[in-house]
């Protein structure tokens, strides 16, 4: 079988595919239309999120949550359009955690809510580790 030239070409092509798949996702992602302003809003908001929760300021925490949910909806949609399932899953995790915070704030479980808020911060980082260019611009 290995002497069959067609089979050898097949092997070479699958090896090439494996290399292409292993190439960092950044190379394939054009971020020119990405909403950096929204990201900066998220950055500002997430800084107040946990402090608002620990201060038991339910109203402010819910307003923060709205902004963050918007952000995760945006990233989910953006990456879904580009077929990046991992980033879509990360975005959904973020939305789930923020919804969890709101639910806990509503029943006055501020400590548990703060823990979920901290986890939500990690969600931002896990996407950035994969998709945010480190040294760009
Ligand atoms: C699913 C992916 C994803 C999630 C989730 C995500 N980000 Fe980002 N973020 C990116 C990408 C990609 C860039 C780089 C955009 C670019 O280079 O134009 C970025 C850029 C940024 C920037 C830099 C913007 C600038 O000035 O150029 C900030 C700040 C930021 N994100 C904050 C956050 C915060 C805070 C969260 C969580 C609440 C978050 N991001 C969640 C993908 C994500």
From TrEMBL:
<dbReference type="GO" id="GO:0009055">
    <property type="term" value="F:electron transfer activity"/>
</dbReference>
<keyword id="KW-0732">Signal</keyword>
<dbReference type="GO" id="GO:0022900">
    <property type="term" value="P:electron transport chain"/>
</dbReference>
<dbReference type="InterPro" id="IPR010980">
    <property type="entry name" value="Cyt_c/b562"/>
</dbReference>
<feature type="signal peptide">
    <location>
        <begin position="1"/>
        <end position="27"/>
    </location>
</feature>
<dbReference type="GO" id="GO:0005506">
    <property type="term" value="F:iron ion binding"/>
</dbReference>
<protein>
    <recommendedName>
        <fullName>Cytochrome c</fullName>
    </recommendedName>
</protein>
<dbReference type="GO" id="GO:0020037">
    <property type="term" value="F:heme binding"/>
</dbReference>
